[in-house]
Amino acid sequence: MSDDFLPRTATSAAERPAPSWAKKPPPKTKATTVTRGKITARRYHAPRDPHEHARKIAESVLNAWYQSFGGSTIDIPLGTVAGLSLLRNVPGLADWVLNLQPEDLPRLLKEIYLGHWIKRPDLINRAIRLHDWAWNPDPDRQQLRAVHAATHAAINTGLLDLTGHDDPGQRAGVDVLSPLLTGLRHKSDKKWRGEYHTPTCLTDLMANMTVGKASARPGMSFREPAIGSGGMFRSVAQRLRDLGLNTHDFHWYGNDVDSLSAGCAAINAIIWDLGPRCLIGCADSLAPDDDYAKTRAEAAEAFEQRDRYMETATTIVAHRRAFALLDQLMPSKETAA
Description:
Blueprint: E1 32-35, E2 38-41, H1 50-67, H2 75-84, H3 93-98, H4 105-119, H5 121-126, H6 128-131, H7 141-156, H8 159-163, H9 168-171, H10 177-184, H11 187-193, H12 200-210, E3 221-224, H13 231-242, E4 251-255, H14 259-271, E5 278-281, H15 291-329, H16 333-336
């Protein structure tokens, strides 16, 4: 399958220089050991509070990114952590990832996003800004080293302990992308965007107050016009699970004017397993246009595109098998002689 089937984003604006405090040699990590030339993850003593744990992960990734001179492009470290958050924490996986070279990481992240694109092309397309950089055929070497450092920081601080569970209810215990996104944002960005994520204690309180056993019925819809990274949806999903209900039985529609926030919400929708009826849009919720209809049309187009590529791939595989079988049946020139 071709590597260029996903739509590409427009050329980004000029980057801001890295902050002055980041211009110092990166410290040696204290969370890894080296055994016979291989890096092995050491157990991170995580805080009991998963939200505090997520903040520690964000802090660790931020330090690793800027101290490795990764620059001010925030979609790269954010997309790295988002991609790693889609992995399941099978034995030995963390050590395997830690022993990858910097140039191996874009391929790993592409394979992660591709695997989920097959299931949810609409959500992966919505998160294009988080993984578009990984498809660059000529990546910046310094940024790859910073991606490598951010990967080590995330895993060694226990990212997979939060997002790697098979049980979606445990994966949805916390939003790991929110503190990283807000930490990467410049203060002026937050101000003019009006981007202030609602604290988890408030979203949990609102979910508990508005979603009850009597009011929550399969088939009903939840809408969030300023979804951010999806914190309100996370709280509602956990409330539904506490009530013994399945998130797949409900409709979810979230929208945000910022493409990075919408991308984080799309990835979180996969991590938290909100289900097949979840749509994430990127538009101005205050505009008079029907953005929900636009989002549904974009999702339908994404699935149609997926089906076309899968049909083409299936045809190519079938032809290759046919030619291989024909080669086996046809006698070679030496045998014929």
